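Hello,

Following up on my earlier ticket. Below are the two sequence lines again, exactly as submitted.
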Amino acid sequence: MKRCKYLLLLGILYLISCKNEGPPPTQTSGYKPVYAPKIPDSEITFSSGKIKGEPGKAVTGGNRLFQLEPNKGIHVIDLSNPGSLRTLGFINIPGAHDLEIRDHQLITNAYNDLLVLDVTNLQQLKLIVRVDNAIRLPSLSIPPHSGYFECVDKTKGTVIGWTKTTIYSPKCKY
Amino acid sequence: MKKFITAILVPCLFGFGCTKRPPVGPTEGFPGSRARFALAADHLYLINGQNLDVFALSPSGNPVLKKTTPIDFISLDTIYALDNRILLGNSAKIFMLDITTPDNPELTGEADFLRSCKKLGVVGNAGYVTTRVATDCYGFNGLQVYDFSAGVNPLSGQVFEITGKYYRNIAQYDRHVYIAGQGLDIYDVSNPLSPELKHTIQTHQFSDLHIYNDHLLGIVNGGILVYDLQNPEDPQLVSTFYN
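Thanks for your patience. The regenerated structure is below:
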């Protein structure tokens, strides 16, 4: 009977001890963070473009409508004739999340940077000022699915997404 | 005694044999797609996490940071400005600030939002706020109206509520308010504290609305619908734009 109690105790203690998961793999499939890139001034350009993606916030300035296409840029539409609107073009701004218009100044962002653009003449679009890191974007600090992932390095900036790839000796998991 | 020690030792070895779970990265929330900027009185108000940043804009457009005001411990996700007021919202509350002194916004009121997440805050003569349930919280879809005429904390005076509507955005023209969502609802707001539903256009799902020269611009997926507002209660479609 005494031996039986001893074995029972051992069994219970075994069951409540944690499950051995083993060390992290040296190579596995997992998620890697995508950090907000720095968009060079030269990438902020005006061209022809069509409204394709998710419609975002829009503002009117003069007889033009500026409509955000989130993360891609801003469509500009001529409102002079409400019976027949006309597209004027597209301002390419990767990472744009919001916009406001003040006279001929378009205020927007490229990821973490605040931008003010002169849109008087769209063909000669002018970046008036860029305020680096004025915008703190919400960070996606964990990947969309559980498992091993490459830890976030905050010195590299804001995490804007995750990509599934082969990762090596991952130190993070959830 | 020997057996006792063995009994303790063996499970301990099981325990030590376990690999420590690697640390999990910190959680900071998830990005939204709501308004972050608002312009008022040559100032740009910008929501930055839990704070409100104020930038003074020079005539040339150069923004100069004037003040950072901590608002709440939950990140802000929407902003709206009209005249000398700013409305801010997060997933739990709405906040109202006075910007009579534009460089120095002052919190004048806040209201619990019944734990529903607001999509956008809009102020008319009264305060009109669309509310929306998100996946990470509960509450209701609809509209709340606040009486801003009373006292120090105007947000304490919720006077009107509509539920069961998937509203997204609001535009005001004359004595009418147009609220977009799964369709377009037109309210008579002759009494701003008690909007009266007059008409509904159910043809499209609108994501944004704008008033432009007696016309209503309805932003839909991939295009824009233009309505004539000669009869504000019954807007007539005059053109559609899909490029």
